[in-house]
Design goal:
alpha/beta; 7-stranded parallel beta sheet; 3 helices; 7 strands
Amino acid sequence: MTQVDFYILEPPSLEKHERMICTIVEKAWKQGHCIYIRCADSQTAHNMDDRLWRFKDVSFVPHFIEANDDQKSPVTLGTAATPSNKTDIYVNLSDELPESAQNYSRVIETAGYDDPSRVAARLRFRLYKEKGFLLNTHNIAG
């Protein structure tokens, strides 16, 4: 069964939110997972691409933006609801539930970084719960 993990950052901020996502992705990659980061739009994908390159001085997370589909990497960023490559962890940075959430071992969600993103996260949490997914919450001090 797919596990859905919601990460709640307090106090919320966009910069800390992006850094938290990078840390979660780095940990999953080091554990051997293939990760898809679904971004709300191409600007968010490019911001996360940039953040993954520079969030730590001593860290490297191999990744690419999905439009460059001739490349292969364990971490892919994109805006499509469904990734084009094999993925076991789906990081959702959009306001929509993944169409096929049950196809992943884990879905990573966040409670957002501002009021509108937090409202959207609460709705997604309720929808996952209604669909019977195993939900976990993680409180992260920013």
